[in-house]
Amino acid sequence: MTAEPSQELPAPIDLTHYFSEVAKNKTASPFKAFYKFFGIPGIGNFAGGLPNNNYFPFDTLEGVAALPERFKPTPPTPVKPPKQCADPDAGPRTEGSRVVVPKVSPDPNPLTKIDLKTALQYGDALGLPPLFAWIRKFTLEHLHPNVPYKNGPEVVLTTGNTDGFSKTLEALMNLWREGVDPVEERPGMLVEQYMYTPPAIRAKSYKANIVPVSMDRQGIMASGEGGLEDVLENWDSSHGRRPHLLYTVTIGQNPTGGVVSVQRRKEIYEVCVKYDVIIIEDEPYWYLQYPSANALSIKSRGHPVSEDAQPGCETYGSSGYPFLDSLVPSFLSVDYQGRVVRLDTFSKTIAPGCRLGWITAQPALIEKIYLSTQQTTQQPSGFVQSMVAQLLIGTEGALPPRESFFSSSNKTQNGWKVDGWVRWLEGLRGNYERRMNAMCNILEANKHVVKTGRRRKQTSHHNEQNQSTINTTDDDSEWRHVVKLQIYDFDYPMGGMFTWLHFIYETHPLADKFPHSKLSAAHWVLLTREPYRVLPAPGVLFSANEAIQAASGYQFMRLCFAAVDEAEIEPLTQRLVNGIHAFWAIKKSEEIDELLEESPWMEARLAELTL
Ligand code: PLP
């Protein structure tokens, strides 16, 4: 379906049959409705239960923020070169600008006024008006410029995607009571086979069925065995209702690093239309899409990543920014029925402690979530909203003079604007992409171990899966052979912050002596010990259920290349591969037994985690 002029687009479909009882029963707060009267010029406000703003202890909020050009982007995005980016990771401290939120702004326009008097006061659940307006405009005009349903989606602020997911679930899922409610009513949520598990845990508090869908390099599969269509078509209703929600991370998937192409999105979307499924798309890493990963993975795996991995988003309307246009667009870009709920957060673009994000979805659903916001968080913290608003939007005019360490940063508070924000995202992508490549190049170079030995001269050639003979002698009775064994494989992540390593425990010298889940537990312990002392996240933590943990989850470890210092990426990755090689050098069972004695946490996890 291609985008057409707004008046010809279909209206979003009615989703009220999926609204939870809680959502249906939500009514607007009469108190909040009263806020509109507070703005009447000159009114003596005896109505609101508002504390006096003169008694707020903060006279200003201020900080020094980076300039948007601090980090260096990577090609192919055509961008302005970074300004004196001496240290690509930290950037010189002096390259900042002061961000000051005054106590009272003289600006009479509530849509541009940023001050503490407003931000720290009670307010409408939409949030601080200038910030809400900026995020809404950025979302609708630049991030998703062409959502193909009539009048497009709406936006509501959240305190991050954890909050966004929780509120979405509250609106769309009923609590099921075991032994009380009929089994046919038990709700279900489709998830990725390897997943970021907190949303599944949240849905389990509603007693929902968590239903895994098989994945490939990109993400969930629309068709094929265990794919979305297969799961929905063959749904066994003795377990509950056919799932009506799909929770998915489509860009820089956590933990696999996949990116779902436009073609795949269309296929998944059509299956969701057929089975009336709502897609909850959680995208903290959307701007971290790595063009270099496709080419590198072809090298790594010896086969193309996917036929349809090209974004092809030119057909989805221009955002006005080459960088944004180069990214695979959201499910919203193919959402002609209004069944996509998109979660965005500032956690990975500013900081997790911001607790600031937003939801984009069809207006009827956004209204329910807005009412939920009235009754729960009210709005994100005013401290955060005002600082982020000042950073992104700014106010015109000179700053009050400051002395000492602020003086070198007395530049401007005109705000980054959309240009600056996009440039910031490009710089972040550049830095994370370089880290990703630094880690993965070392992993790529070390995925084999070499075994040497002598063998009777019967078999002249040997080449099984994961091993190959690469050298021989011409001795009469024996071959001296050198065998290359592959001990792990992985794909260069197409996006996000994680590398997903798959270990081939079949090639371990003790593969026949221990269950491979035990080898994995011992392996993890060894890696955490001196001299390796690295901490990968065990794959069992990302398995959507126990069966997946037991069948394959233990074969994986997730490595985050985002958090450690730039200078540490290569030495730490080298330590990790040294540890992996040391594990493959273990030939005595007692050594594995000894390591397993130290793995109660892993063992307990394997036994107890009942996702
Ligand atoms: N969703 C995914 C896929 C994540 O990886 C994370 C954090 O790691 C979150 C959500 C949490 O987001 P927030 O900090 O906005 O609540």
UniProtKB/TrEMBL annotation:
CDD domains reported for this sequence: AAT_like (cd00609)
Keyword Magnesium appears in the UniProt entry: no
Start and end residues of each stretch annotated as Disordered: 69-104, 454-473
Cofactor(s) required, per the database record: pyridoxal 5'-phosphate
Membrane-spanning parts: none
Pfam family of the protein (one): Aminotran_1_2
Protein name: Aminotransferase class I/classII large domain-containing protein
Lineage: Eukaryota, Fungi, Dikarya, Ascomycota, Pezizomycotina
